[in-house]
Amino acid sequence: MVVTPWEVSGRIDYEKLSREFGTEDLTPELLVRLQKHAGTLHTQLRRRIFFSHRDLSWVLDEYDKGRKFALYTGRGPSGPVHIGHVVPWIFTKHLQDVFQANLYFQMTDDEKFLIHQDKSLEEPYRWAYENSLDIIAVGFDPKRTVIISDIKNIQHIYELAVRVAKHMTFSTVRAVFGFQDSSNIGIIFFPAIQCVPAFLPSAISGKSVPCLIPAAIDQDPYWRIARDVAPKLGFPKPAQIHSKFLPGLGKGGKMSASMPETAVFTTDSPEVAERKIMNAFTGGRATTEEQRRLGANPDICSVYFYEYYLFMDDDKEIEELRRNCLSGNILCGECKQILAERVRRYLKEHQLKREKAKDHIQEFLAESKGLNLPD
Ligand code: TYM
Questions:
Q1: Which of 22-31, 55-64, 111-120 has the lowest average pLDDT?
Q2: Binding-site residues, ligand 1, Cβ < 6 A
Q3: For 11, 22, 251, 339, which has the most beta carbons within 10 A of its beta carbon?
Q4: 3-class DSSP assignment, residue 246
Q5: Residues 6 or more apart from 108 whose CB is under 8 A from it?
Q6: Whose CA is nearest to atom 5 of ligand 1?
């Protein structure tokens, strides 16, 4: 398996990954603490979609003592948003609601310009606008959320970035990110930029503000560096909570915009989404007769994964689906139809909210509101 911020491939063994990255398991005790605050255990926690962390217990300890934390997450605007990206954002919104936390949302237009040698700057700019609509459609609180473009809002970032960069050596970032002699020097500096928002809440307020970063585990390499640098600059080490990847609709692998036929984009029409789902890889048998007799395998089935990650919230219902699949009571065609209907409903709702977001985007952008969020 390969898991880096720019490549995720192979069969992902999350336990092994967590050991290699040096992260900690989300223990039952931590889940109980989160449940106490929220009044309920979020689906993504119940199903261990968020599965690992760093310093989450410390963040909760501090919160219990009356010290609030800030949230930080982000998006690299290189194309349309797919429903895999939305997984950590839904959970981030949940955390914002429960803890009344400010959210710093970084839009790494610079990263996407630098990493793709053939991209013009106009492309990430255009996608940053489009993707911001998706982010707003997830339902973040405009009073407590700011979307920061690295390029357009560089005046808020650069001073901290150079302070961070001074404590990062080329040999570290080369080892962590796999840079080569041929890598452009923009992307070599970029890791300092992605670390900055973790320190912004403290730098802006002049107080030490804990920061919690919800994201899929591919972004973890940045946080390892940020945690090394933090004490050198007098900031608390940023904490993380890591999710797994929503798989693509093909055989194995995470959902990725570079394989559009196996990714459902938030802007897909219902017909296009349905076609992709009807062509999805499942754990079904070669013939109907065999499937009725032997049952199918939900543990390799992308349709089942979609229900599990996003669309079938009710635990009894998903258990029943699993049983029906294993026993051959349900066929893949029926299962795909059920998912397609749910996805169609979700897309309709999301796209309405996305349209509405066009009138409210200024309430979220750093260029119009600055970085000051309430206490
Ligand atoms: P990006 O745009 O690749 O991904 C945005 C967010 O989506 C997560 N993600 C997924 N989650 C579940 N299933 C998937 N299939 C899937 N694919 C991607 C990513 O982990 C991420 O949380 N460099 C970053 C942008 C960034 C950022 C951050 C992300 C800047 N600061 C802080 C997270 C936290 C990027 O290109 O993300």
A1: 111-120
A2: 5, 72-76, 84-85, 87-88, 106, 108, 111, 194, 213, 215-216, 218-219, 243, 245-246, 254-255
A3: 339
A4: coil
A5: 74, 75, 76, 77, 150, 190, 193, 194
A6: 75
The answer on pLDDT for 363 being more than 90 is yes
Cβ count near 228 (within 10 Å): 14
Least confident of 2-11, 36-45, 248-257, 263-272: 248-257
Nearest to 370 by CA among 161, 53, 155: 155
Nearest atom of ligand 1 to the alpha carbon of 256: 15
Percent of the chain with pLDDT over 70: 100
Say what the pLDDT of residue 63 is.
Answer: 98
Using CA positions, which residue lies closest to atom 27 of ligand 1?
74
Residue type, 270: P
Q: ∠ CA 227-77-79 to the nearest 5 degrees?
A: 140
- Which of 8, 94, 96 is CA-nearest to residue 44? 94
CA 255 to ligand 1 center in whole angstroms: 12
Instruction: List, for residues 75-107, the tens digit of each pLDDT value.
Output: 999 999 999 999 999 999 999 999 999 999 999
Mean pLDDT for the stretch of residues 36-43: 98
Structure tokens at 170: 């080329």
Q: Please report, as a single letter, which amino acid is at residue 321.
A: L
Alpha carbons 240 and 59: distance in angstroms, whole number: 10
Per-residue tokens: 45: 């926690």
Q: Model's pTM, two decimal places?
A: 0.97
Alpha-carbon distance 233 to 365, whole Å? 27
Q: How many residues does the chain have?
A: 375
Alpha carbons within 13 A on the beta-carbon side of 367: 10
